[in-house]
Design a protein that fits this description.
Helix content is 82%, strand content 0%. By secondary structure, it is an all-alpha fold. The chain has one domain (17-40, 48-229). Helix 1 (18-44) packs parallel to helix 5, helix 2 (49-95) packs across helix 3 (97-110) and helix 6 (176-202) packs antiparallel against helix 7. The longest helix is centred in the first third of the chain and has 47 residues, at 49-95. The protein is elongated. The relative contact order is 0.19.
Length: 235
């Protein structure tokens, strides 16, 4: 597929960010919530500072690697599907270009163009970049949203580590008696900021995005603290 030719008139479209934004937001949220919940849950069982810190660091490392592997496998599957569809389309263009041109014209007719104009548009697009036209208009594959496994994996791992760093640092510096309220307060504040930033980048309402992230983070920490307290008391 030939590279897209973009005409920039000063317009800003957020779809260009979708590939890395989804992975970055997911990684940061997961790193912050899961590591904070882990620290709060382990702290509720009453172990030593060393045990809490070990759990935080292990959670950071394991979570970052898990996020990278999961994103790479998931997005690679999407990339494989896109590649297979493009290969199929390339073969059809080589063997039956007239039928493919008629199919493309039919798509434009279905979108509201007249039969004559649709035929002209299909003819010109086929002459310019036949595979690109079919990829975009028939398959829905756009350059800005193409699957990029390595980019998604690195973004997820890095953002998970960044998100997991604050609770890990608190576990190392804050006395165990004050650790739980400190982690909860810092985590909720960061979740509100992260949710607002993600909403702004994505063009969504700031308040709804921030409160949604903070609410589920609070639920996760509360449930994990209850589990830690329960099993800590049993042990």
């Amino acid at each position: 597929m030939a590279p897209n030719t973009k005409v920039n008139r000063g317009e800003v479209h957020r779809s260009d960010r979708i590939g890395w934004l989804r992975a970055a937001v997911l990684g940061a949220n997961d790193g912050l919530i899961s590591t904070s919940s882990l620290v709060v849950g382990v702290a509720a069982a009453g172990p030593s500072r060393a045990a809490i810190l070990l759990a935080a660091v292990a959670g950071l490392a394991a979570g970052a690697l898990s996020m990278a592997a999961g994103e790479y496998v998931s997005v690679s599957s999407q990339a494989d599907t896109e590649r297979a569809d493009l290969d199929l389309e390339r073969g059809e263009l080589a063997t039956s270009p007239e039928a493919e041109q008629a199919e493309l014209a039919g798509l434009y007719i279905a979108r509201g163009l007249s039969r004559e104009l649709a035929a002209q548009v299909a003819d010109q697009l086929m002459a310019h970049d036949a595979l690109g036209a079919h990829a975009r208009d028939e398959l829905g594959i756009h350059e800005t949203t193409r699957a990029r496994p390595t980019q998604a994996a690195l973004a997820s791992a890095a953002c998970f580590a960044v998100g997991a760093a604050p609770p890990a640092v608190l576990a190392a510096l804050v006395p165990t008696g004050a650790l739980t309220p400190a982690v909860v307060a810092v985590t909720l504040g960061l979740l509100l900021a992260l949710g607002s930033a993600a909403a702004r980048l994505g063009g969504a309402p700031l308040t709804r995005g921030a409160l949604r992230v903070a609410f589920w983070g609070a639920v996760a920490m509360g449930c994990t603290a209850a589990v830690g307290r329960l099993f800590g008391a049993v042990v």
